[in-house]
TrEMBL record:
It comes from Sinocyclocheilus anshuiensis. PANTHER family: MUCOSA ASSOCIATED LYMPHOID TISSUE LYMPHOMA TRANSLOCATION PROTEIN 1/PARACASPASE, MUCOSA-ASSOCIATED LYMPHOID TISSUE LYMPHOMA TRANSLOCATION PROTEIN 1-LIKE. Residues 88-168 form the Ig-like domain. Pfam families: Ig_3 (PF13927), MALT1_Ig (PF18703), Peptidase_C14 (PF00656). This is Mucosa-associated lymphoid tissue lymphoma translocation protein 1-like.
Length: 536
């Protein structure tokens, strides 16, 4: 049975089977790799990040059967007693909210448990049918949906109830009509993790992915890129600038190595040599100047990177100041001459600045107020208290928020130009089918973009006939491309992003660093059947 436990908590998984003669057992992890020593009906594990397991049971006659996959989910909850037996322990309670009519609100309840607990939501003491997951989402708020919400959490040991969350409708005098609008919203997110000459990082993968999803919910066109060299970073900035114009809200986010020199902040490209030199890195102030030159309505730069002072020979970047513009915001993960840290949070790596940024970014508040809440939360975190402090600089003269609506009227030509530029790099291939007539097999291919320069190809075998036995599907690319997620721990964090709901592909292929393709890429599809290899 699946479980949900704190880090490093000992868990025993058990399987019971009936068969002829002595039975053999072999446990496998989510990489489908045999677990060392996992040859008994019971498997005891102690994990610091989430994992999945399956057991194969076989007899002396080569008959075998697999159990269902079970998940060991890890939640970072230091308040669990050592005497905890596995009864539901609620770590996240739903929060009361005041909602405007017609809006959507979300409640969440999360609990530890052995086995993993079941959830059932209630409103005003009445059960809500089919609302049996951790998250409850209610759309189109009205008088029929307000009230007191509770979640019952249970497993075979016990049942626990969450704290009540009161949902109220805001009175008319609390519903200001939005007056500040954008003509478009554009965001460029860059995460560098695999460095040629510097220590590698873990956090940028999930940080960039989660922030991109949140900004898309706010109506942003998001370009998210991983592992860029200096020429690639400069090219990405140039394309980003083409999407900016009057009235546009622009967000530039970077996670990776960085430093400060002579009052300038520099972002380290993946190919930057040792020691740091300004000519091998990207100057943040130069990026902001270019954004200002495009006359965007709001320019926000968010940097989850270190700012240690790094003295070096040679001149710093020369930047001529523009006329004062009241539309800029800098959100630094840390203060001058200080480091920015990444931590393990619930089994995943995250920059601690981005952790709290993602917590608050959807709030309909002035962008500087959002960053102030990030600063307050980070300042209370015991992991970095006294070592990392958020710094905010801005020249805002209006209460602009990332949640401001988009109004395109009067900007039709500029919008069409941005649409054309946007579609060049953001249109996915459609679902395709490939026939292997020799073995009477059809393969279906589908595509998903984890990031703007990372494409995942899913291959599924369909319509196998009696002629096809023991088919194996292999996807490869020509030219072969580096898998930037293959490092220790990174592949595990990406598993949840690769699995499509309701369907398990037979094969997946990650195509990374697509910006380095100079020619159109080719896929090689290989089908193995009865010792015969067919390639198309």
């Amino acid at each position: 049975m699946s479980v949900c436990v704190p880090p490093n908590h000992e868990v025993t998984l058990r399987v019971q089977a009936i068969g002829t003669g002595a039975l053999k057992y072999q446990w496998f992890d989510k990489q489908q790799t045999e677990v060392a020593g996992g040859t008994e009906p019971e498997l005891t594990v102690s994990l610091h990040r989430s994992g999945k397991y399956i057991c194969r049971v076989s007899d002396l006659y080569c008959n075998y059967q697999f159990t269902e996959w079970v998940k060991v989910r890890i939640l970072d909850e230091p308040g669990v007693s050592r005497m905890w037996r596995g009864e539901p322990h609620i770590v996240i309670h739903p929060i009361s909210q005041t909602v405007k009519p017609g809006e959507t609100f979300t409640l969440k309840c999360t609990a530890l448990g052995k086995p993993a607990p079941a959830y059932q939501w209630y409103r005003n003491g009445r059960i809500l049918p089919k609302q049996t997951t951790e998250t409850l989402r209610i759309e189109n708020t009205s008088a029929d949906t307000v009230g007191s919400y509770l979640c019952a959490v249970s497993n075979i040991l016990e049942e626990r109830w969450s704290e009540a969350a009161e949902i109220e409708i805001a009175p008319p005098d609390q519903q200001p009509t939005p007056t500040l609008m954008a003509t478009d919203k554009v965001a460029l997110l860059i995460g560098n993790l695999n460095y040629n000459h510097h220590l590698g990082l873990m956090a940028p993968i999930m940080d960039v992915h989660e922030l991109a999803n949140l900004l898309q919910q706010l109506g942003f066109r998001v370009v998210s890129l991983l592992d860029l060299t200096l020429p690639e970073m400069q090219a990405a900035i140039d394309k980003f600038l083409q999407l900016l114009d009057r009235g546009v809200y622009a967000v530039f986010y970077y996670a990776g190595h960085g430093y400060e020199n002579s009052g300038r902040n520099y972002l380290v490209a993946t190919d930057a040599p040792r020691p740091y030199r300004t000519e091998n890195c990207l100057c943040v102030q130069r990026v902001m100047q270019s954004m200002q030159e495009r006359k965007a309505q709001l320019n926000v730069i968010l940097l989850d990177t270190c700012r240690k002072w790094y003295k070096q020979k040679g001149p710093s970047s020369e930047i001529k100041p523009l006329a004062p513009l009241g539309n800029t915001v800098y959100g630094y993960a840390t203060s001058e001459d200080a480091e920015a840290f990444e931590v393990q949070d619930g089994g995943k790596s995250t920059g601690i600045f981005t952790k709290y940024l993602n917590k608050h970014v959807l709030k309909p508040e002035r962008v500087t107020h959002v960053l102030e809440q990030v600063s307050e939360d980070l300042g209370k975190d015991p992991l970095v208290r006294g070592r990392q402090v958020v710094e905010i600089r801005h020249t805002l003269t209006e209460p602009r928020a990332l949640t401001d609506p988009v109004r395109t009227s009067g900007h039709t030509m500029e919008l069409r130009q941005r649409d054309a530029c946007w579609k060049q790099a953001n249109v996915l291939p459609g679902r395709r089918s490939l026939d292997f007539p020799y073995c009477a097999v059809k393969v279906e291919l589908s595509f998903s973009a984890l990031f703007s320069n990372v494409l995942v190809v899913f291959g599924t075998v369909r319509n196998t006939s009696a002629k096809a036995q023991d088919c194996t599907l292999i996807l490869e690319s020509e030219p072969q491309m580096q898998d930037i997620f293959s490092g220790s721990g990174r592949s595990e964090e990406m598993d949840s992003l690769l699995v499509k709901s309701g369907e398990t592909p037979d094969c997946t292929l990650r195509l990374c660093c697509l910006q380095r393709l100079q020619v159109q890429g080719l896929f090689v599809f290989e089908m193995k059947n009865r010792g015969i290899d067919l390639k198309f």
